[in-house]
Design a protein that fits this description.
The chain is of the alpha+beta class. The longest helix has 20 residues. Bound molecules: 2-acetamido-2-deoxy-beta-D-glucopyranose (2 copies). The site of one 2-acetamido-2-deoxy-beta-D-glucopyranose (NAG) has 4 residues, from helix 4. This is C-type lectin domain-containing protein. Keywords: Disulfide bond, Signal.
Length: 314
């Protein structure tokens, strides 16, 4: 009975700790371009900092200097990250039928693809109004031309609501079938996602942009993200400017973690022999659950390891 109780406490204590210790942030007060900051972090830590949620943003701020400035984090806008709307699948240089010198809106914050009536592809900014070709999985007619003028995002919403999605084009035969429907430039499902990845290759699932960021004008160069060290809000700037930066690391050996264990026992818990016995049991339980390379010891408050708690309602 006592063993079971100990075992439960051990595991819940462990998981409470692991979410906090998993990543550490480091502020580096050296002015570097984003690419040089990335190299520095990769050499000295793990990578530039990735922030996946509000808690991590708060954690990053806790190592941030109090003076207000911008410091790089790992997020960058990748000009080559094209995806098909359908299934959010990577385009990865599969079949394509670009017009000569396309894609050419490389430096727009976002780009979308229209097919011309001759079947060639042209990347343009997504706010333009065009007809769309939806894909209708159940058939029998798979390709549906929608002759309503819409921006690319509205076209996608239209296709997703009324059919399956904006159309994907996987080979020349599909390209020919689709282009035979067209009498003017028409949206297809190919789209360049903005700010898709972090430096450590994790997908972008959380952002905390400052108002009016990222700046939505045509880019002249690659853009990268930084955090305002006083506000915790994010800004985009040309990756070639120099800033301080945040790195992250995953320490293989956590320095020290404290758990508070609570249990009932008939034995005198302040007897050193009993304490030693409990430690040994904890040790064995942790090892049994795959935890390696650790030391356990009791800490004391007011000269005692254990403190009696008043009975509260169960
Ligand atoms: C679905 O199609 C109808 C007309 O066929 C259109 O009015 C409606 O806006 C479409 N739905 C969406 C979400 O776009
Ligand atoms: C084109 O791709 C579709 C979907 O993958 C496939 O069903 C079809 O057989 C392909 N056609 C040719 C000619 O390769």
């Amino acid at each position: 009975m006592k063993r079971t109780l100990l075992f439960v406490l051990t595991l819940s204590g462990l998981s409470a700790v692991s979410t906090n210790i998993i990543k550490e942030y480091h502020y580096v007060s050296d002015s570097k371009t984003w690419a040089d900051a990335q190299s520095y972090c990769r050499e000295n830590f793990d990578d530039l900092a990735t922030i996946n949620n509000e808690d991590e943003n708060v954690k990053l701020m806790s190592v941030s200097p109090s003076t207000a400035r911008k410091a790089w984090i790992g997020l960058y806008d990748h000009f080559e990250a094209w995806k098909w709307a359908l299934g959010d699948t990577d385009f990865n240089n599969g079949f394509s039928n670009w017009e000569t010198d396309n894609p050419n809106v490389k430096h727009a914050p976002e780009s979308c693809t229209k097919m011309t009536e001759s079947g060639r592809w042209d990347d343009i900014q997504c706010f333009y109004q065009h007809h769309a070709v939806c894909y209708h999985e159940p058939g029998p007619t798979k390709y549906i031309l929608v002759e309503t003028l819409m921006n690319w995002h509205d076209a996608m919403a239209y296709c997703r609501f009324n059919y399956t999605d904006l159309v994907s084009v996987r080979n020349l035969s599909e390209n020919n079938q689709i282009s035979s429907l067209l009498s003017r430039g028409t949206w297809i499902g190919l789209h360049r996602k903005t700010w898709p990845y972090w430096s450590d290759k994790s997908p972008n699932i959380f952002t905390k942009w400052a108002t009016n960021h990222p700046v939505s004008t045509t880019r002249t160069q690659q853009y990268c993200a930084s955090v305002g060290t006083a506000s915790g809000k994010w800004f985009d700037s040309g990756c070639g400017t120099t800033q301080h930066f945040f790195c992250q690391s995953f320490p293989p050996h956590q320095h020290e973690a404290r758990f508070k264990l609570k249990f009932q026992s008939e034995a005198d818990l302040n007897d050193p022999a009993v304490q030693q016995q409990i430690l040994e049991q904890l040790h064995a339980n942790l090892e049994k659950h795959g935890v390696a390379d650790f030391k356990l010891r009791w800490t004391q408050t007011d000269g005692l390891t254990f403190h009696k708690e008043k009975k509260t309602k169960e």
